[in-house]
Design goal:
Oligomer: single chain
Order of helices and strands: EEHHEHEHEEEHEHHEHHHHHE
CATH superfamily of the largest domain: Peptidoglycan recognition protein-like
CATH class of the largest domain: Alpha Beta
Strand order of the largest sheet: 1-2-3-6-5-7-4-8
Structural class: alpha/beta
Length: 373
């Protein structure tokens, strides 16, 4: 579907910018196989909350254990974000429409999603899924339910969609003491605009913004990084969800950095060395994440620009230093090592010995870093 870029109007007190998405049509198509929940109907993402429980009464906001919207917005800003507040982001009616008003539940987890549009990244609009997330989901009585709490556009812009309880997780397994199928009542959901279906296409700006949003949500809820989960962690078995395409450990590492939490290198219980030149060899594996990977990526890009060119480095590694050792880092590592292989017998031997997509200690030193265990 095509989404027009929304208009923006000032909110009261001049705190930030609000977005009006009125007049946009709902999307009722079934979600693409293997993707996130973009386009699904309300029942698919309602979990146990499709029908209104008779025992739930309107909540006493003063005693509500759910974080106050103002506190959450303040935490987002404390992380350097300029969140765009979608019109109605704090309106109690959307919590009532989700049949969660007065439930008395608290936040026990923060869930990472990709939107799962099945549209290739090259053709995605910056805010492709925003209108559906905001106005496309209806409850059993035909009233609108917001389909997540936070939304991260392709350019890293952060939209606050709703800060009360709402639907985003659907049915899933019991965890953290939360009954099965009831994660909607106990978690924040962060949707990141992407193709989905296991494709790793997030931009560098999205990695940074999503990590900051998750950090703010955890802090507002007094939770640690162990409460970061992927949608597939909860709903993989029950719904076959595969989002996000990135591992839970990667998200926890990036989010931990935003929170100032000591990050452990893969295979080690040691905290990351404060010496910026240090790079742990234990972290130099595909699928790894964290500060050591980020240091390596920055040094690799800098050295690569000398050996290849700036344009080639950006071609092979358009996402830049994300802190995740994925396909782009593997490709750039191979390209630089292959270039070195043409310069001497030593580097030709290293090239032939493999693996070619990860560095050895000599390569770490060559790009200006100091390898540690």
């Amino acid at each position: 579907m095509t989404v027009r870029r929304p208009s923006r109007v000032l909110v009261t007190a001049g705190l930030t910018v609000a977005v009006s998405l009125t007049g946009l049509s709902a999307a009722n198509a079934a979600a693409p196989a293997g993707a996130g929940h973009f386009g699904e109907d309300g029942q698919a993402i309602a979990g146990a909350y499709w029908d209104a429980p008779q025992e739930i009464q309107p909540s006493n906001r003063a005693a509500d254990p759910w974080p106050d919207p103002a506190v959450v917005v303040a935490q987002l800003r404390a992380h350097g974000l300029n969140p765009i507040l979608v019109e109605g982001y704090d309106d109690p009616k959307y919590e009532r429409n989700a049949f969660l008003d007065g439930s008395g539940t608290s936040v026990n987890a923060v869930m990472m999603h990709d939107t799962g549009t099945s549209v290739p990244a090259s053709r995605l609009n910056n805010t492709h899924s925003l209108s559906w997330i905001t106005y496309g989901v209806k409850n059993s009585k035909g009233k609108t339910v917001r389909a997540c709490h936070f939304y991260v556009a392709r350019d890293g812009s952060v939209y606050v969609v709703y800060l009360g309880r709402t639907w985003h997780a659907g049915a899933g397994d019991s965890m953290y003491g939360i009954p099965s199928n009831k994660m909607n009542g106990y978690s924040y959901g962060i949707e990141i605009e992407s193709q989905g279906g296991g494709v790793k296409d997030l931009t560098s700006a999205q990695f940074t913004a999503a990590s900051k949003v998750a950090a703010a949500a955890l802090e507002a809820s007094s939770l640690g990084t162990d409460r970061i989960i992927n949608h597939k962690t909860y709903a993989g078995r029950v719904q076959g969800k595969v989002d996000t395409a990135y591992g839970k450990s990667m998200w926890r590492g990036l989010i931990g950095e935003q929170m100032g939490v000591a990050v452990s290198a893969p295979g080690s219980t040691e905290s990351v060395s404060p010496k910026k030149k240090h790079v742990s060899m234990a972290a130099m594996v595909a699928g790894s994440s964290g500060e050591y990977v980020r240091r390596y990526q920055k040094a690799l890009r800098k050295y690569g620009k000398k050996k290849l060119s700036t344009s080639k480095v950006n071609k092979f590694n358009p996402s830049k230093a994300t802190g995740y050792y994925g396909s782009e880092t593997k490709k750039l590592t191979r390209k630089v090592k292959k270039k070195l292989a043409k310069s001497s017998t030593k580097w030709k031997k290293i090239w032939n010995n493999k693996p070619r997509a990860v560095p050895n200690k000599a390569f770490i030193k060559k790009i200006g870093k100091t390898p540690i265990s």
